[in-house]
Amino acid sequence: MLISGGDAQPLTPAGSHAATPIWSPDGNSIAFAADRFGAMNIFAVPAGGGEAKRLTWYSVDEKPSSFTPDGKAVLFSARRLGDATETFAIPNRFEQGSQLYQVPISGGRDTIVLPNAAFDARWDADGKRLLYTAPSIEQSFRKGQTSSAARQVWLYEAGSGRHERLTDDTHESRDAVWSPDGTVYYLGEASGSLNIWRLSLTERKPEQVTHLTGDPVRSLSMSRSGILAFSRGGELYLLRPGAKDPERIAVNVAQSALSGESPSQTSSFNDIVPSPTGKEIALVTRGDIFVASLNGRYVKRITRTPGEERNPSFSPDGRKLVYAAERDGRWSLYEAGIVDPEEKSFFEATRIEERLLQAGKEDAMTPVFAPDGKHVAYIANRDSVRVLDVATKADIEILPKGMNYFYGDWSWWLSWSPDSKWLAFPIQPSQQIDNVAVAPADGHAPAMRVAPSGEDQSPAEWSQDGSFLLWASDAEGLRYINGRTWSADIEGVYVSRKARDAFEQKLRVPVIGDAPSGSEEEERRPGTPDEKEAMAPPKDGARPRASKPREAFTFEPAGVEDRTIRLTQQPASLVYFGLLADGVSVLSVERYPTPQGDGFTVTGVVRDLRRERRRTLFSGLSYVRSSPVRMSRDQKKLYFLSPDGVTEVDTGKGSSRVIKITADTTRDAAETRQAAFNQFWMLTKKKFYDPNFNGVDWEAVQLKYSKLLPSIVDTRDLAELLSEMAGELNASHTGGRLRSSVPPAEQTASLGLYYDERYSGPGMKVAEILANGPFDSADSALAPGDVILEIDGEPVPNEGGIRRALRGRAKQVLAITAEHPGGQRFTEKHVPVSLGKEQELAAARWLKRKRDYVIAKSCGHLGYVYVADMDEKSYRWVFSEIFGRFQQADALIVDVRYNGGGNLHNQLLTLLSGKNYMTYVPPRGGPTQQEPRDRWSKPSAVIMNAVSYSDASVFPQAYRDLKLGPLVGDSVAGTGTFVWWAESNIIPGLVYGLPQLPIRKLNGKFIENEDITPDIPVLSNPTAWSKGQDPQLDAAMRAMLPAGSTSCRSP
C-alpha cells in the first residue's frame, strides 16, 4: 500500500497471528513475528508477496526490531540464556531476561548482538551506534505511569561498548528512531500522553514535536527521507518533515479471516454436576452448559450464547437446571427445563425451554436448588446471600452485604439442609479467614457462626439425614509459611442434641467380631438374624448399608458451639468429604502430587468411626487440579474430572472408569471476543481497587475500545486491545495476555549449556556447562571450548542451530557428537531437559555466583541471600541459608531484584526484625546460640531494582517503615496491589489482570503508584554488567562491612 492510502492486501495467510512488521532498507523484504508453530518466531516475506521464510526455531516468543543497515540481517529480542559472562539479569525471566540477537534474512545462524535486554533496537546508518528501549516489567500499553521504573531510551556505542541513557525522566520513553541527519526521534509521555519528541545528540535537549491529547502515539518509524509514521487510536498517520500536523492515512484492510461460526469440539471441562436421577451429568466448558448420558454417547447442549453460563444445579426431580448467565452486562439466574413429560432426561429431550428466573440490578450467581425444589439460594452482587421462591418470586436476604470479601468468584459456596429450612455459607471474621455460618432460609433470624475459629473452615456439607454439618478445618493442618494450610481435618457439628445422642448411640452399639465368642458382650448383642446382619460390618468391597429411613434432624441453634466434633485425626489435602448412608462412615478424597510433579492423583479413604478403622477405597486416579468432586444422590457413585475425561468411582467396590465425553462448542468467534471483552470490562468495573478508577471515565473507555472490536481477528489481538483498555487505569498488574500453547514437537529442549553466541563456525561452541544439567556428569568429557557438531548422527543445522535440532527432544536419550579444540571427536548420550528446567539451573547459577562473590569479597563477614519469589520455596531457602551458612556472619544482604512478587512480605519482615534477648554459651567452648534462634537480629540491607514487583515492592517499603536497614539500588515503583489473574472461561488461555485489593501505608496512602526510593542510590548499569560487574551489590557490601573487619572467617 502507498503512503497515500488505499487497499491493504494481506501478505500472511489466515490461521496464525502475525505482528510487528519491519521493512528492509531496500524495501524488498518485510520481517515479522508469527505464531504459526505456537510461539511467535521470526519470519521474512517478499514485500510484493510470496512465501514466508522461517528464520528462527524457538518455543518462547521473539520480537523483531529492525534490519541491520546493510539489510542482511534482522535484529530481534528473545529470552534465552544469553552470554555466560556478559548477561547480567536472570535469563528468561520477564522482559529483563531477554537479549538482542540477529539472524540473516537469507537464513542462517542467529548470533547475539547485546547480552542485555534491548527492545525497539535500531542501528544508525554506519552501524556504530544502537538505539534501544530498556525493558519494564509492566505491560507495554500502560498509560500515565510516573515512576523511575518506566521505560527509557538508551544508546549503545559498539566501539567502546558503552551504554548511555538518553532519556532521564520518570515518564515512559520508547521506540526511538534515527533521522537521516542523525537526530533521534522517540515517543515520550512527559506531556501526559505518548507524543513524538526530538533529541539532538549534541544539544541533548528534548523537544516535543507533536502535541496530541487523548490516544497515545504508537509504533513510531521513519523513512529514509525523514517521514515519520505511527499509529494512534487504531488508525495510521504520517508526519512529513517540517509539518506541524500529522496526516491520517485512509486504509482499507481486506480481512482474510472467516466470519460466522467456527466448528470446534472439546473434551475438557471445568465443572460437573451429576443429576439426581443417576442417569446423566451436567458439564460446563467454554462458557456453555451441557448434559451428557453416563456412557458419554449422548451430549445435549443446554446453552448456546456468546457469553458465559456456569454453576448448574439440578432440581430434585432432575427435570430442571438452574444456572447463572452473564447477559447484557449482568449476571442473572436462568432455568432450563424439559418440556415433554414423557421425556425423563435432558440428553434425550427433544425440547428444552429456558426462562429467566431472576434478574435485578445486582449480579446473581452460584444458584443452588433447595431439596424441596421450591427455592433457590444464590449470591447477590458477590457479597450477600439471598433465597428466591421459584413460584412467587419472593426474594429474601439471608446474609447482608459487608460480611465477606472474596478474591474470586470461586470462593463462594452454599449448602442446603435436607429439610430446606437452613442454609450454610461462609462468613469472614477477618479478610483472610472463612468460617462456616448457618441462617434460616426464611430470613427470620441473622446468620450465626456455628464454631467460631481463627482458622479457615472450607465448604460445608450437610449429611443426608441432616444430623451433621461437616467442613474441612485448617486448625490441625500442616501450614505453609504464609499461614495457609495445605492439609485439613474433617470437623463438624451435630445439628441438635438429638442428633448427637443418636450418633453416640450408634457408636456404642457393639460390632460383630469385636469381642471373643461367649463373652458378656457377645451375649448382649442383638439376637435376631436381621439385627445381627444390620449391625455387622460391611465386607471388603461392599458399600456401607443405609439404616432405615427416618425423619431428618432439624438444626438447633442453641448450644451449637458445644456440639463440635473432629471426625479425622490425620490431616490431608481434601478435595471431598461426606458422611455415608450408614451414618458412621466418612468418605474423604485426598489429593497428592504425582512423583514427576506434573499433575495430581486422588485417593479415596473410608473411615469407620465405630470400629476406628480406615480402608483405602481407591488410589492413584488422575485428577484435574482444583476441579470439583461430586457425589451422586444415592451415594453409589463419585465423579471428578481427569485429564482423560470424567472419572466415575463405585463407592462400594472402589472400581473406576473414565467416561469419554466430547462437547460441540461451535460458536461465532467475533461474538465470543465481544463477550469476553465485555466480561472483563464489567469485572473491572465491579472489582477494581479504586472505585473512582484513578480518575478515568470507565464507561467512556468501554465505548472507546469496543468500537475497535470489529477490526480484530484473533485472541492475541483481543489480548492487546484489553491491555490498551486496562492501560487507561494507570495501575500495575493489568492487561490481557494469551497463555502460549506450543505443540510438543515444537517445544525446545535444552542440553544445559551456555553457548558462544558469536561463534560462526559449524555446530555450536560450548561456553559453560550448567551445574546439575545433562552434561554435569562425572563421565562426560565435554568442556568449554568444545563444539557440538551432531545430534543422533545429524549435523547441527546452520539455520536455527542447535535449538532447531532440539525441538521436541526433552527427556529423550540423544547421542551428542562434539569436538575438542584439538580436533578429537567424541560421542556421549544425554537426556535434554525442558526450557523451564534450564531457567531454573541458570537462576541457581546466578544466585551461587552472587553468594560466592560476597563471601569472598567480605572475607566471610557478610551473608547473602537471594529471594527469587515471594513464596514458600524462597522463604525456606532464605531461612536455611541464614541460619545454616550465615549464622556467624556480621551482617546480611537480602537481594529482591528480579522478583515478580507473591505474598511473603510479612514472613520476611518478621524473619529480619529479631531482637536478641539472650544467648546460650557452652561453658567449655563451642558454638553459641542467640535467641530468638529463628529470627535474624544483626544488621541487614536490601538490594532492589525496577523488577522488584508486587509484593517485592511491599517488602522494601515496609522494611524502611520498620527501620530495619538501608535500601540499595534503583527506585522501585509501588505496585503493592493484590491481583486476580482472571482466566476467561469463554476463550481458553485468555488471561486478564485485575488489581483489586490495595495496601495502605502507615501514612494512609496506597503503596500503588508511590515510588520507593533507595537510601543508597545505584542505578542499573548495562556497561558494568557487560564486564561482569554488579555495582549495586558492591555498594551494599560497602555499606554493611563492619569497621575493621580485615580478618577472614569461614561463613
CATH homologous superfamily identity of the domain at 858-974 and 1011-1040: 2-enoyl-CoA Hydratase, Chain A, domain 1
Can you tell me the residue ranges where pLDDT is under 50 for at least 5 consecutive residues? Answer: 513-535
Oligomer: single chain
Largest sheet: 6 strands, antiparallel
Measured by DSSP, the beta-strand proportion falls in: 25-35%
- The number of strands is 72
SSE class:
mainly beta
CATH architecture call of the domain at 858-974 and 1011-1040: Alpha-Beta Complex
Mean pLDDT: 92
Q: Count of DSSP helices?
A: 13
CATH topology of the domain at 858-974 and 1011-1040: 2-enoyl-CoA Hydratase, Chain A, domain 1
Give a verbal description of the structure.
The structure is a single chain. Helix 10 runs parallel beside helix 11. The radius of gyration is 33 Å and the shape is globular. A hairpin with a 5-residue loop joins strand 2 and strand 3. With 1051 residues, the chain is mainly beta. The longest helix is centred in the C-terminal third of the chain and has 23 residues. It is 13% helix and 34% strand. About 2% of the residues have low confidence. Strands 57, 58, 59, 60, 61 and 62 form a six-stranded antiparallel β-sheet that branches. Among the domains are: 129 residues, Tricorn protease N-terminal domain (Neuraminidase), CATH 2.120.10; 147 residues, 2-enoyl-CoA Hydratase, Chain A, domain 1 (Alpha-Beta Complex).
